[in-house]
Amino acid sequence: MPVAEADVIAGPDPEDACCFVREHAGNRLLQLVGGCTIDYQGRAKSQLASGERLILLKPDGTLLVHSDEGVKPVNWQPPGTTTTADVRELDGDTRLIVTVERSSPDEIVTMAFDRVTMACAFDIEDWEDLELLGTEEDIQQLLRLHPDLVEEGFEPYDMELDRRRGPMDLYGHDVHGTRTVVEVKRRTAGIEEATQLARYVERERDKHEEVRGLLAAPDVSETAHKYLRDKDLEFCELDLDRLMPKVPQLHATQETLGDFG
């Protein structure tokens, strides 16, 4: 298997860093580490004060800006953007300015570097198929084993009771004893998951006076979130940083149990 060759420069000055970005952006996977401010303008406006960040610019135009915590980028742009680099004088200092623009919709992310710790560019090729860890079924099982990751005091009923009641992901009661239906989504939950949860909860409310409904996912669309509020349902943000490290252990346990099957 061939090994990707990397071009790396450590501690470049703004001019050298600018030339490096111009040479490699859009052609290779480009990584920048350094202190920068970030300004976003588009459907909204946002600013991030100066901080140490990892910038990833992919050949397809994807932009990811990471801090030193969490799995979610603090800023991002999808494929199809255009990257430019310039050197400007700001507040008496010479700075590298990297601009990432998107045309539909019109969005622009401007990163002003007061220093670049490292710049790296390389070609990568993924020869292997992705082995998906952390499927929705995995997450359901993990939440059953660690119900406090749904919310403190949540206790799921046994799986046999769940089966008799239909294809609900999790069914249990909260810390106050209120019956609680949980719909689990591995990625951003949309209106489809919200309406499905509403159907399950409505069915249970026909039988019981008080039933809660929780849509558990890393994120939720604005439309789905509004629908949940209108239906007196709730969104529960899943912390994938806490869940995903438990997946290999879950699979190992299942394989061990399978040896006795």
Element layout with pairings:
Blueprint lengths: L5 E5 L3 H11 L4 E13 L3 E13 L5 E4 L8 E3 L4 E9 L2 E11 L2 E17 L13 H10 L9 E2 L2 H6 L5 E4 L5 E6 L6 H15 L5 E7 L4 H9 L3 E4 L2 H4 L3 H12 L3
Parallel strand pairs: 11-12, 12-13
Antiparallel strand pairs: 1-8, 2-3, 2-8, 3-4, 4-5, 6-7, 7-8, 9-10, 10-11
Written description of the protein model:
The chain is elongated and about 70 Å long. The longest helix has 15 residues, at about 190-205. It has helices spanning about 15-25, 135-145, 160-165, 190-205, 220-230, 240-245, 245-260, and strands at about 5-10, 30-40, 45-55, 65, 75, 80-90, 95-105, 105-120, 155, 170-175, 180-185, 210-215, 235. The strands form two sheets. Strands 1, 2, 3, 4, 5, 6, 7 and 8 form an eight-stranded antiparallel sheet that branches. The chain has a five-stranded mixed sheet with strand order 9-10-11-12-13. Helix 4 packs parallel to helix 5 (about 220-230). It has seven helices and 13 strands. It has two domains: about 5-120, Protein Yojf, Chain: A (Distorted Sandwich), CATH 2.70.180; about 135-255, Trna Endonuclease, Chain: A, domain 1, CATH 3.40.1350. The relative contact order is 0.12. Helices cover about 25% and strands about 40% of the residues. The model is unreliable at about 255-260 (pLDDT under 50). The chain is α+β, with helices and mostly antiparallel strands and about 260 residues long.
